[in-house]
Queue: 3 jobs
Job 1
Amino acid sequence: LNQALQIDPEHAQTLSHIGKIYKNLNQLDRALAYFGRALQIDRSDFIALSESGYIYKDREEFKNALKYFDAALHINPDSAGLLLAKRKVLCRLDRFAEAKRIYISA
């Protein structure tokens, strides 16, 4: 992947994949940095949006998580994993009626 970045340092997908690697290594700040770079290039990068949301959810930064989940769901509204994660975040934000709507519509 580093070779791919040397060829095209503005390739959003490569940046997102590197971000996923850092997320899997639990280097979350570094992962977010790569996801952020990917999103500067391509605001509709589904991987960067969804993975950023999961990191913020795990950090209990629920408002940030919701922002990224909503953006990712705008791209892929049928993502069951994201809908479940968004529902959990809404519950943690005491927004139970919205969480219930997701549960009913899923």
Job 2
Amino acid sequence: DDGNGGTDTILIVAHVDDFFDGDDSDSGCVLVVAATGTALQHQLGPIRAFRDSALLTNAAGAALVNAYYSVSRHAAPWVRQSPASAAAIRAVVSPLNSLARYYHPGR
């Protein structure tokens, strides 16, 4: 209870490093690395800024981020071996980057 008749919300946010023991832990977005190596890593800055300032600031956004990290850990090996799934990841990164830049110009 938060003392005001409501309940406290606890945000549990995991970082990608918490899920990996191998080389992916220091390379950023697990699915982008699985799909491209590091070819699109330069486009992830605005997406990370959006994650940190918009998603991780509320329970729904934090749940979405946690779900992504949980799923991506298991999906990465499949993405590495599937040209179609790798192409889908590559196709999503640029529009996400543009959307994140729209919401957070200058990042």
Job 3
Amino acid sequence: DIPLETVSLLTGAGDDVVSLLRPPRAGTLLVDTAGGGDRVVIIQADNGTTSVRTGVGTDRVELRARGSVGTLTVETGDDGDRVEVEYEDGTTEWTTLNRLRFFVEEI
């Protein structure tokens, strides 16, 4: 498992589906799907910096992380997008809140 400095995944215009079950370990992970009705799913979004840009179109972004998470940035267009982020930290014993889940949906 060799850590990389930056991993970028760029797709062209059109409706794209990007699924990363376990992205490579990197200081920075960038996913940019340009325009279109895109869907991005990242499981184990545990990199130092994870950035997702979907551009114009009705998009859906799902991010799941467990453990240590650095900076997370999601940029979508103006077209009724949905962003779902779920974070679990099983090591937090001092609080009953050990799972965070929220949705952002544009209307």
